[in-house]
Design a protein that fits this description.
254 residues; 6-stranded mixed β-sheet; binds magnesium ion; binds adenosine-5'-triphosphate; 4-stranded antiparallel β-sheet
């Protein structure tokens, strides 16, 4: 589904991503781990069009996307969340989902006059989709509450919900469980499982190794911009290069 070929990105003298090549194939959930500053978020920014790679190319469903802007990439079905949550606190939970519904005809002034039926159909479709997602996320009871009343973990769920409104095929999650309490983490895991059963694929940056092992059928490890491991999560934890990468940085994940 996603193929990355020889992708690099430098900031001044610092190489954040160094010649990374990988094919995500059709794995349900692929993990991306690595010490702080190893280039994980930068790679996500590049894949989703927020940064332009210095070299290399990226194919999403066989289509080159390395030169496309983020909105075009997301319309192709490749959508990300950010490491920092971005909900709109003053809108209701439901409206936080509706605000991102793609291609809203109602925003097009000509369509408002000439295609009112189509607008109504689209809005009904979006509302139905939002209700389905709220149900899946177990947030229906909060639909009319302002998003400012949500806990941090629930905000992360809404962020995922906003991604789902765009009917993604591949979702990139950057640290979806950081700062989230254990019971909500269980809920997020269940939601991801349900979505993979519907055919949605995930690429997830996650520091919590037990969770990576549980959730991911495959894990990639980055260190100093390079891909140093690609294989099973159980094997990653015993891999000398991976251990060295974490110990060298005195990191939490070992
Ligand atoms: N816009 C930028 N300008 C300059 N340097 C940057 C920029 N974005 C990232 N970097 C640097 O690139 C390197 C990789 O950063 P990145 O955020 O991709 O790491 P990460 O693996 O996501 O780390 P973390 O686990 O802490 O989130 C770091 O040294 C970071 O300081
Ligand atoms: Mg990061």
């Amino acid at each position: 589904m996603l193929r990355i070929e020889h992708v690099s990105k430098s900031f001044g003298g610092l190489t954040a991503v160094a010649d990374v090549s990988v094919d995500l194939a059709n794995n349900r959930v692929t993990g991306l781990v690595g010490p702080n500053g190893s280039g994980k978020s930068t790679l996500f920014h590049i894949i989703t069009g927020f940064y332009r790679a210095d070299n290399g190319w990226i194919l999403f469903r066989h289509k080159p996307i390395q030169d496309l802007p983020p909105d075009v990439i997301s319309r192709l079905g490749l959508i990300r969340t950010f490491q920092q949550t971005r909900v709109l606190p003053f809108l209701s939970v439901r409206d936080n989902l509706l605000a991102v519904a793609p291609e809203q005809l109602g925003e097009n002034i000509l369509a408002v006059f000439f295609r009112p039926g189509a607008i109504n159909r689209q809005e009904r479709g979006n509302r139905r989709r939002a209700e389905e997602i709220l149900q899946l996320l177990k947030l229906s009871h909060l639909a009319d509450r302002p998003a400012s009343e949500l806990s941090y973990g629930q905000e992360r769920l809404i962020e995922l919900g906003r991604v789902l409104m765009c009917r993604p095929q591949l979702v990139l999650l950057d640290e979806p469980t950081s700062g989230v309490n254990p019971s909500l983490i269980r809920h997020i895991v269940q939601v991801i499982r349900q979505l993979t059963a519907q055919g949605i694929r995930f690429f997830v940056v996650e520091h919590n190794m037990p969770l990576v092992t549980e959730l991911c059928e495959r894990v990639l490890v980055m260190d100093a911009g390079r891909l140093i491991f690609d294989g099973l999560p159980e094997t990653a934890q015993r891999d000398p290069a991976v251990i060295e990468a974490y110990l060298g940085k005195g990191c939490e994940a070992t």
